[in-house]
Each structure stands twice: as structure tokens, then as C-alpha cells.
Amino acid sequence: MILMKTLTLASIYELQGLKEEALEIYKEVLKKEPHNEDAKIAIRRLSGMRKKYDGVNEEMKKFFIRMDTEIEFNEFERWLVKLWN
Length: 85
Description:
The chain is mainly alpha-helical. It contains five helices and no strands.
């Protein structure tokens, strides 16, 4: 099976903690679509994260997988914003 390398696939990889794989896909998308702002932002974000963080926050990964309320979604979103700033 051949996977189409898209922003969606890269996002899925990123959410699963597969940052290197996601970064490579974002770079491939940007090669095909040089003006794709979403790919540019993701590349900057992941490039910065690679420098700051090593590995996956397993606690938040489990929380993300299990969250099912708007309150939990908001909590996760606040954690992401804090992480990326």
C-alpha cells in the first residue's frame, strides 16, 4: 500500500509522537507546494521542538488518546500552547 504524504498524515504522525517522520512529510509537502503556510509552520514548530524536547510526553499522550470531553480537550489545548511558547 502506498501512503499519500499529506498534511493530514503528517499531523497524525505528529500526534502519535513520530516527530521525525512528520517533519519529513511536511518537508516533502513543502517541496511540492512551496507556498503552503501550514507546512512551513509545522516545520518551524517541529524543528524547534526537536531542539527542546527529546521523546514523547507519555502522560499527555495517554491523556490525548483517552480525552472525550470538551473540558479535557481545552486542558490539552492549554498544555500544547504552553509547550510551544
